[in-house]
Amino acid sequence: MAGLCSKIITVSNYDRAIALDSNVGSEEKLVTVHNGVPDLDSRSLSEDEGEAKELVRLIMVARFEEPKDQKLLLEALSELSHLPWVMEFVGDGPKLESMKELTVELGLGDKVYFLGSQGNVAANLRRADLFVLISRWEGLPLTILEAMRAGLPVVASNVGGVSEAVIDGETGLLVPRDGKGDLERTLCRLVTNPQERLEMGLAGRSRYDSEFTFEAMRQKTLMVYRDVLSVESSNELPPEVGIR
Q1: What is the pLDDT of residues 213-223, one digit of tens each?
Q2: Where are the alpha helices (DSSP H) in 32-83?
């Protein structure tokens, strides 16, 4: 269908680069409009959230299927079982049962919770302290934007367009795909550093406000349509030219 389109919108520069390399379209035809999510009541962030908590609540929102690497996350967490954290997985999918079995094998049964599909993920995010998304590949995941909206620092695999949302060292920390050791060190760093979590969460919320709201996405998308319609309108026959 690419040959029939005036413009093609991609959700990340990463996807746009793939399309260009695959000769899907030209530089002029391919336009990036990052995903955006509607704003909700923002999480109340204050200085006291920088204080140490009895348990740091980690959360990952993703289906249990091939692109997501919950297995690597569980293995990394098993090396940090001495730290004060609990992990919540939101989502279902074909690999859910095997991940439950792995949790028991790793001795994490009292620290990891599987919540299944949830009707109000935003509420789960508001209760959390740290968002984690360990994936083998991504485009520009909405769950990361929802976590930033909730004022959460993000730990994520540096794949796809993730780095276009998460600024490494500022709004969260990025780890290489399959990097178990890097993931262990990163989780340890943020679990044990409440002030850094707070600062990254505030920076993430600010970045969401400026770049990833639904309204920003809507306006950029409308601009693409207006540009296309403007060009097509200028190419129309003048009114005095009839069709015979």
Answers
A1: 999 999 999 99
A2: 70-78
